[in-house]
Amino acid sequence: MCPWVYLLPERVFILPMIRKFLIKAELGRENMNRDQPYIFAVNHNSHLDEFVTMPAIMMSTRRNTHFFADKKHWFEGKLYFRILARRFAAIPVERSGEGGDEALKKGVEYIKKGHNIIIYPEGTRGSGFDLNRGKIGVAKLALWSGAPVVPVGVWGTHKLMPKGKHKPTIEKIVTVKFGKPMSFREYEHRSNEKEAMREVTDHIMRSIADLVGVCYLH
Fold it and tell me: At what angle do helices 137-145 and 194-212 cross, to 10 degrees?
């Protein structure tokens, strides 16, 4: 079954409700189209981030969209997190251990099938007022898949459902900004060099910082 058909309840009910009650503005939707899958690199401050970015992404690209999710929290935690993780075919990530590359390879498989991927380069939730140093997983995903990276800046979720809180406040304050797609083909021949991965990651993080309106000093 086509993923877009499979997610009909989300299209008709969940995503429009998120837009109606939480999202104040979605900017830069013209930077996405239906011609190709994307990697969406997003700043991370809340478990709401996946869902406030989904409406514009899915409506603009008409593609199934997956996100990387902490295995312990999303797949072994509270029931509603487990349901959402499986519903959106989230990619489980072991926060400890050496499973990071395996998760990224799964992401590449989805991209090759024409699906979008949401990734949080910071690797963990922040405060909403600055950006943590980006991890190079986003660069690996971009270089291994060849897919363009769209930087995304989210503001407001840190107020509605900050780290440590599991039930959101309902208030229409969230702004989601989509930057222009970035290609890193000039780095493809250096896809196994850590220095190249660091350069790509920092370039992406600076673009996210510009969208959020903060400095990236790492």
Answer: 110
